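Hi R.,

Here's the chain you asked about this morning:
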Amino acid sequence: MTATASTSTDPATTAWDVIVIGSGIGGLVTASQLAAKGAKVLVLERYLIPGGSGGSFRREGYTFDVGASMIFGFGEKGHTNLLTRALADVGQRCDTVPDPAQLEYHLPGGLNVAVARDYEQFLADLTARFPHEAKGIRAFYDTCWQVFNCLDAMPLLSLEDPAYLAKVFFRAPLACLGLARWLPFNVGDVARQHIKDAQLLRFIDMECFCWSVMPADLTPMINAGMVFSDRHAGGINYPRGGVGVIAEKLVAGLEQHGGAIRYGARVTQVLIEGDAASAQAVGVKLASGEELRARRVVSNATRWDTFATAEEGSDIHRPAAAALVDAAHTPKSEATWRRRYRPSPSFLSLHLGIDAALVPEGFHCHHLLLERWEEMEAEQGVVFVSMPTLLDPSLAPEGCHILHTFTPSAMEHWRELSPSAYRAKKEADAARLIQRLEAILPGLKGAIRHQEIGTPRSHRRFLGRMGGSYGPIPALRLPGLLPMPFNRTGLRGLYCVGDSCFPGQGLNAVAFSGFACAHRIGADLGLNPWALPA
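And here is the predicted structure, written out as tokens:
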């Protein structure tokens, strides 16, 4: 059981109410929400800018997004517009540009489909490709809307707070019951109830893979209900100035509400006092040796980076010394979590500046390429492409576009390479990726004016994530979201937030995790208002 405010470290010797380790979007939403509740919050970021994989960096007149540029959560209505709500709660907002399509698929067998913002148009376009599945297509995607409508009917806060659950059930009992119904299901189970065509089922696999990096059988129905419907409800909206603006605005809101952030502050250890059942997190230690104390500690690192286990040291686990919590204080539940989930691969990524003249009229902002279905989960199989300057031209010099492309790549392919071998592999893999992109942008190679190559080693170095991974994926078939851990951990006073927690990967998902974590800590410290958000 998590310690309450009355049993936490003596406030007279505590500098902070809450310390958040890492300034990813989940960590920043947690910190800014708590600051808005009146908590004294400090965020510690190992790098020089906020946002983690939701940040941006600048090179020679270009503003590049570190990770994905396809952003959910900026709608104006309901409760699933979590980025809009997180910013508004601390007096901030982002100017956004609506995208007329989520993305365009370029799949084997000439299966090209652009996901229109208008729901009926999308169904019509997909049905035109699979007319014999017209009824099943509508039934499946309408079922996704049922899930979305349940989510959208309630404030998305901590499922670990019984008081919140009682209040939200009183407000929206049918939505709660409807949501509970879908918690144990994965997308593949539902899709096969309505659809028989093998190629269409593969398309739905790709619909899931494009944001969960998992096929439909391993993707929770709750997540699909959010994504497959919100792209038509709230829509895909790009933040003007780049994705990094979201983190910058959250930092501004945090500071305006009395919180603070320190950059270049690498946390090496969670400080723990007490033995066995009485052990409690009481602060952190930095690489400099400085110790900071807090009533509560939040890790926005992955769970592999947060907790050590006896399995550490293998190819998929970090050395025990690198974890924030040593093996002696790691809860047994973390070993169970590791059996259920494995790290998703990292990425080979290219950030390119290209001649605008190369890009044809009507070219979509986001694309996904796959030449062979068998390669969907393979090393460098699927290729993701974004051109955010089609929405915000200010991100590149005049006459140029940004082309950000990335493909899954595991750390094992980049380990133990000499400096020269590493450079050679980077260049060779980047050249192959550019050659594949010529299928949708002929002449691309000759139009490149700026190039940055990132590998799993780059992602590990700059994001501080084990293996450069972008989060956990099921190691076996699991019942929907039910096995996903929430924010509280088995170590009192320590919470986790981000893509290692319910509901998983994606900016809007980690924002949900941030809202939930802040609410749970707010309940523990007696900071939450009685009423639910409007």
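One quick note: The mean pLDDT is 91.

Cheers,
M.
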